[in-house]
User: Which sequence fits this backbone?
């Protein structure tokens, strides 16, 4: 079915725009960039319809990538039902965001560069989901990280943007350190990295090996999917243009960790201890990030912490064995979070770059379409039935309850917090009186149409696409009885969150400020994100850098080793005379010097060893 | 006529003719150097074409009597490893000619003559199969590099050149002693003959003897690599050398050390090599981490790249002393990768120096605005250097780390830290040089690549992508040769069995 066409099309777009884009007109750049992704989406649809029910994976072999001795890694692509969902999300939402960007980026410099990077991202993301072995997956994995780095630092003359790009890349590298160690262990254990071989043999492998493979893979996933303690790069990543935040840092790339752990479910089901740790990290991240989201004033930062928190839910899904629920939430989250970001992009666009919600307010009168579509997403993320987020979040929480009730309760509290901070953002942005000085204007249709499509998906995506049933043939079945009470409780938590936000920010404005000042210290800690960045900086970054400079470079290298070398040099022979000798530039004298020294040593050596024998 | 003779003696003939070019015509020297180095490259492509990729042995063998007593032959041949190292040398020499075109303005004739002589010496080192001849080439390559640094270098060039010279001499004198000792024992300098005597049992060394001989050879090679803590000549030599010197030094000369370890130390003294392997592996790992950490805090671009070489070459040594097929393959691949990507780093840093006349990172910033294509090529090289998949270094690093993991998983855990650190120092460098606002100085002086510079950089970029995407063009001859070396050391048995078992199990299911 020519699966390779799916990623190659955006790659071609990248090459064309990257090499020649500077000389192209805007229209030509749009045609190449958007066209390649839409074509890729079309090819995904054609592939899916051409391959039937896909109960077993369809694999295509292209060439041998690396071979050494008996070990080889092939460039293979495979497609099964899990891949289908990922492909649809990536190319579908990717297409919408490309279209949106045509409007959003219209007045920005480096237009061709932006689209080239975005296309390159699509290429790597599609390689990631199509990979038939861990190493090809790792290609996509590192590649999307690269594009993330390039796009976060898109405004490369701004220091904060390039700092954020570096941070994203390096923190992800720490995660990849774990991922690559998992790969090395898998080769050691299974002799192969093909999904088929690894999963077949997993059942017979010792549990402690599987546990470590699982944990190391999870470390990788924690980097990419911004989980504790490696989440710190994602909020900073908002320095990139808003469509990037929507596509890479909300809908697709950051979910790669969830995809990868779900893909490795065979390993995890044989190492339940590793799964528990995933669930704990997931729920801790979900709660922790939600609390930070409560106190942020930058509209993108709110949604960034929200993304971290929602990814935590997906981790909980995978960790408690509800793999399909995790993927379900991955999909619905892609709809509503992409919409929230694109919507805030539209707000920022309307206010010519303003991101601080304290300078917004009352915008629903000026930018009605943006308001209406974002409202759909806000309701969806709050878990109000029958919007998309309700179904997937409910599936995860239900499974969590049967695994460990406390995870359910903490998840429900988080759901309440989520509804609160999202509606806090909505109310601060769209309700009350306008507090800024710009003249808000609605975005052009090229931006609004993607918003409307995503709004429809956020409303209806949950019951239109029943992911758990679709994935029933891939993942092991989970016997979880429907539980009306639990569903009502978690939904009520969401509604309560909305209500409190309404009271604090619409009905009684000013209440939020007085509440914040009554618990000033707590507010300060949360507002400053628990000072995690500062702590990392003081305990890891500074000691490493300063230690390298003062101890290793100046101390060991220049002091100890070079000191010894120069000392020996000076003692053995007066350096000045050596200099004169060598500087004469006479090759004959130089050669003679070598010969003399060599003969001397040879004679000594032969005499000594001869004597020993 | 044997093609090896052409590849080896073209540079020598070129060197002699270069000396005849009148001093009044520097352009003539440049054109001659370019033409000759390109001709040599084409000849080496012929070598690649006629090389039998299915044979593990030495090919294109030539054996001419040279000196009667003691009997020294002019014996040269190529194998699956040296083949690529020769191609690396012949590819980089014309590139070095191109990047020196404008930057070298005094004693132009001598500069290019030495550059070509250097190429001759390097090719000879990789081809020589007579131990004495090997030593001759080893020293021949030292001389032109000494002068390249000492004459065309920067302010502290004399100090750097002498340090480079003394360090290398210290090692090579010991090696010469060991070579003579081998001759005394085997009554020949012929390397294949000595190996033959070893495998048939006509020649053997007792434990202490073998250990001493191994260390004598190894020390010479380890200084050249350089292995921690013998590396301190490298940063000085790199910083002071002209760009072309840095490129040849990093890309090819350092490989003389690793090639020597692989080609001579392992087959000649297998049990000593195995005995020392844990110690050497630990030094290699220290080098990986230490080199990266020290690179991170360098204020000078060339020093940063130099310390990164210490880190990268640590991977090569680690791979070799893992004694696994993957480790050895990865080590060889990494030699080539480092040659390409670090060569490109030094070349582009040289282009920056030509424009801004500074190597201090702090003097730059915002270059991406004024020279976008230069920035792009440097970015691709940076990414290759930090091991991004689909670029060359990833394949090598993966094989080295994987091979090491099969031998000793703990080593891999520590060595992998280098992969995190490489991203730190390279991206930080990139940010400070290329991103940010362009200063007045940068805006006026740092312009984009011209056609000649494009011609120098593009081949390297193409190689980075090609070697990263399709390693099958390069790896099979390497594997054949490293498998033979492993057989000579007879030590990789358990890992091979382990892998085979895994593969069989998967086939059986």
Assistant:
């Amino acid at each position: 079915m020519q699966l390779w066409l799916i990623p190659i099309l955006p790659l071609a777009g990248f090459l064309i725009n990257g090499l020649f884009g500077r000389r192209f007109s805007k229209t030509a750049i749009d045609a190449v960039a958007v066209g390649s992704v839409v074509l890729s989406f079309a090819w995904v649809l054609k592939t899916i319809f051409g391959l039937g029910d896909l109960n077993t994976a369809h694999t295509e072999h292209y060439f041998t990538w690396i071979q050494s001795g008996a070990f080889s890694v092939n460039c293979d692509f495979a497609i099964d039902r899990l891949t289908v969902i990922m492909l649809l999300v990536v190319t579908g939402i990717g297409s919408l965001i490309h279209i949106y960007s045509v409007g959003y980026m219209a007045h920005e410099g480096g237009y061709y560069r932006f689209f080239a990077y975005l296309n390159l991202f699509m290429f790597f993301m599609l390689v990631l989901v199509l990979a038939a072995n861990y190493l090809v997956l790792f290609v996509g994995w590192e590649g999307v990280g690269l594009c993330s780095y390039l796009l976060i630092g898109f405004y490369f003359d701004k220091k904060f943007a390039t700092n954020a790009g570096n941070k994203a890349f390096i923190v992800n590298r720490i995660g990849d350190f774990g991922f690559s160690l998992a790969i090395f262990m898998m080769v050691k254990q299974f002799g192969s990295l093909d999904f088929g071989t690894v999963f077949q043999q997993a059942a017979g492998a010792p549990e402690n090996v599987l546990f470590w493979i699982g944990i190391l893979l999870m470390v990788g996933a924690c980097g990419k999917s911004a989980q504790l303690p490696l989440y710190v790069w994602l909020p900073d990543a908002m320095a990139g243009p808003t469509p990037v935040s929507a596509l890479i840092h909300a809908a697709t790339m950051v979910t790669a960790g969830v995809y990868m752990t779900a893909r490795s479910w065979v390993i995890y089901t044989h190492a339940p201890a590793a799964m528990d740790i995933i669930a704990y990290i997931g729920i801790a991240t979900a709660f922790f990030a939600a609390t930070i989201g409560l106190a942020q004033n930058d509209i993108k930062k709110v949604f960034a912490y929200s993304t971290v928190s929602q990814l935590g839910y997906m981790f909980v899904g995978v960790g408690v064995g509800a793999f399909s629920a995790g993927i379900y939430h991955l999909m619905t989250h892609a709809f509503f979070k992409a919409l929230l970001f694109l919507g805030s992009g539209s707000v920022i666009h309307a206010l010519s770059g303003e991101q601080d919600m304290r300078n917004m307010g009352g915008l629903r009168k000026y930018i009605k379409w943006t308001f209406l579509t974002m409202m759909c997403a806000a309701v969806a993320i709050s878990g109000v039935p029958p919007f998309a987020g309700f179904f997937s979040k409910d599936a995860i929480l239900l499974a969590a309850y049967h695994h460990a009730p406390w995870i359910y309760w903490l998840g429900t509290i988080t759901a309440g917090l989520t509804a609160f901070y999202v509606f806090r953002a909505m109310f601060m942005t769209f309700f009350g009186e306008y507090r800024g000085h710009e003249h808000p204007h609605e975005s052009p249709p090229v931006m609004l149409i993607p918003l409307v499509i995503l709004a429809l998906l956020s409303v209806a995506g949950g019951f239109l696409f029943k992911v758990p049933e679709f994935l029933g043939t891939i993942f092991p079945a989970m016997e979880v009885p429907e539980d009306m009470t639990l569903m009502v409780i978690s939904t009520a938590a969401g509604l309560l969150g909305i209500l409190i936000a309404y009271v604090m920010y619409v009905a009684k404005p000013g209440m939020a400020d007085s509440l914040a000042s009554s618990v000033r210290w707590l507010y300060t800690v949360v507002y400053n994100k628990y000072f995690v960045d500062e702590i990392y900086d003081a305990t890891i970054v500074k000691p490493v850098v300063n230690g390298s400079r003062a101890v290793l470079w100046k101390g060991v290298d220049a002091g100890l080793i070079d000191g010894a070398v120069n000392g020996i040099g000076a003692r053995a022979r007066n350096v000045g005379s050596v200099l004169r000798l060598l500087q004469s530039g006479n090759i004959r004298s130089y050669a003679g010097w070598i010969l003399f020294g060599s003969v001397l040593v040879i004679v000594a050596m032969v005499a000594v060893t001869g004597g020993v024998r | 006529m044997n093609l090896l003779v052409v590849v080896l003696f073209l540079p020598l003939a070129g060197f002699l003719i270069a000396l005849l070019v009148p001093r009044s015509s520097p352009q003539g020297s440049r054109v001659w150097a370019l033409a000759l180095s390109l001709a040599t490259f084409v000849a080496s492509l012929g070598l690649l074409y006629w090389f039998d990729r299915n044979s593990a042995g030495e090919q294109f063998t030539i054996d001419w009597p040279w000196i009667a007593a003691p009997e020294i032959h002019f014996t040269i041949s190529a194998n699956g490893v040296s083949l690529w190292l020769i191609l690396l040398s012949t590819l980089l020499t014309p590139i070095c000619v191109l990047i020196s075109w404008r930057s070298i303005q005094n004693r132009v004739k001598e500069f290019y003559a030495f550059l070509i002589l250097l190429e001759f010496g390097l090719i000879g080192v990789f081809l020589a199969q007579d131990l004495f001849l090997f030593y001759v080439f080893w020293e021949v390559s030292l001389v032109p590099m000494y002068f390249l640094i000492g004459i065309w270098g920067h302010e502290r060039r004399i100090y750097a050149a002498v340090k480079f010279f003394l360090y290398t001499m210290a090692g090579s004198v010991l090696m010469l002693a060991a070579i003579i000792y081998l001759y005394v024992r085997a009554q020949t300098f012929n390397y294949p003959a000595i190996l033959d005597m070893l495998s048939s049992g006509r020649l053997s060394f007792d434990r202490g003897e073998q250990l001493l001989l191994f260390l004598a050879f190894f020390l010479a090679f380890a200084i050249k690599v350089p292995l921690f803590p013998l590396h301190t000549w490298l940063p000085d030599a790199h910083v002071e050398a002209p760009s072309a010197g840095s490129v040849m030094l990093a890309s090819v000369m350092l490989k003389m050390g690793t090639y020597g370890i692989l080609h001579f130390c392992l087959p000649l003294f297998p049990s000593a090599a195995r005995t020392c392997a844990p110690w050497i592996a630990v030094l290699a790992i220290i080098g990986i981490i230490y080199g990266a950490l020290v690179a991170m805090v360098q204020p000078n671009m060339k020093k940063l790249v130099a310390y990164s070489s210490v880190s990268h070459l640590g991977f090569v040594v680690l791979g070799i002393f893992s004694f696994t097929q993957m480790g050895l393959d990865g080590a060889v691949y990494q030699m080539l990768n480092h040659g390409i990507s670090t060569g490109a780093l030094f070349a582009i840093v040289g282009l920056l120096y030509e424009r801004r006349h500074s190597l201090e990172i702090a003097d730059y910033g915002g270059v991406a605005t004024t020279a976008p294509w230069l920035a792009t090529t440097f970015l691709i090289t940076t990414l290759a250097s930090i091991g991004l998949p689909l670029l060359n270094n990833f394949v090598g690093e993966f094989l080295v780390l994987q091979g090491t993991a099969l031998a000793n998983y703990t080593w891999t855990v520590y060595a992998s830290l280098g992969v995190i650190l490489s991203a730190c120092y390279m991206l930080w460098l990139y940010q400070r040089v290329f991103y940010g606002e362009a200063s007045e100085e940068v805006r006026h002086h740092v312009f984009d690549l011209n056609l000649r510079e494009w011609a120098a950089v593009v081949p390297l970029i193409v190689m980075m992508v090609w070697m990263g995407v399709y390693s099958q063009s390069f790896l099979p001859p390497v594997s054949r040769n490293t498998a033979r070396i492993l057989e000579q050391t007879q030590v990789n048995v358990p890992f091979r069995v382990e892998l085979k078992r895994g593969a069989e199990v998967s086939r059986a299911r």
Residues 532-572 of chain A form the longest helix (41 residues). DSSP finds 26 helices and two strands in chain A.
